């Protein structure tokens, strides 16, 4: 049976220790005996994490002046950071890692202003990038506000459902931005970029009662101009004309993926018990055809679902995966579809009951770095598999992960860029505070950045 360490309370620090020493030695305020002063200096660092402001997400050398954080609390004091480097002063809402050193994080600072940060040393220091020219709204930018085709190119898409939608493009890591244009109904759409120039956008201008009109646009200049390449509006009047277009049934809100510029996959959120829906294109989104997939048979009345677009690994030729869930009652059973032939065929692997989660859990953060190695959060513990989900082990040790997720139970993103280097962005139930965590040993121990 798995044993878990019993967490003990931390020693009291700061003002309570200072007051007790003054009282015991009966000295005027500000005066301490040499031994007491030495003890205070030694213990001065304890409880540092607990003293961070509720919406601070990154640690840095202490600044000389306290700065207000996103929730209106004063940030911890600290020494000046090097020029161009600073502590993250924002409630993070999104994150994207590219490799062991390079990552982007974004969110809202005091007053609701969008902030974008970049690190090139694995999160030790962060440089604040310029805000996109189109980001004038104070609305929550969301976890998918920025697409990152490569280390230097970023595309900002306004989140939410306010119209008109806005777009901005950077070719220098966020130092400067140029405004692009989008179709009027594009706000809240699903977008993917196959390169710094080429990308696709899926919109649903009319969605209700389990069905939606679906349009797909293509850009060949990085997002400055878009051309309509697929529209299923004709099915509204002539539902029998199904050849090559996406169906009205289902919603395109699970993401879209491409392998190269031509081959793409689009999962649709299904409302039909016992059925999952995945469509495939081989001609740059002009025509689409459904991909037959098997589903779990654990519960015939359950609802299976593909919960994310396919991800293909550079390290494995033709290898990739996409997440799968099977809802039955108050429980969600997890699994994944894997491919070894570039998405031509997919095989379902249903995970064991030890990975079942409560239906109320917002996100498991299920992620695979290869066909064998993956991680997930089951609401109580971080789990790791080295055999493609056939078995899972509980990762534990420092207690930082468990302690943080107890106060910040919503997992926004779990991402590994190597077998050792991983990141996690979590937030509070009220979404008014967040934490960014980092591991360098495959998830066994974590630190709060």
TrEMBL record:
<protein>
    <recommendedName>
        <fullName>Photosynthesis system II assembly factor Ycf48/Hcf136-like domain-containing protein</fullName>
    </recommendedName>
</protein>
<dbReference type="InterPro" id="IPR015943">
    <property type="entry name" value="WD40/YVTN_repeat-like_dom_sf"/>
</dbReference>
<feature type="region of interest" description="Disordered">
    <location>
        <begin position="52"/>
        <end position="86"/>
    </location>
</feature>
<feature type="compositionally biased region" description="Low complexity">
    <location>
        <begin position="66"/>
        <end position="82"/>
    </location>
</feature>
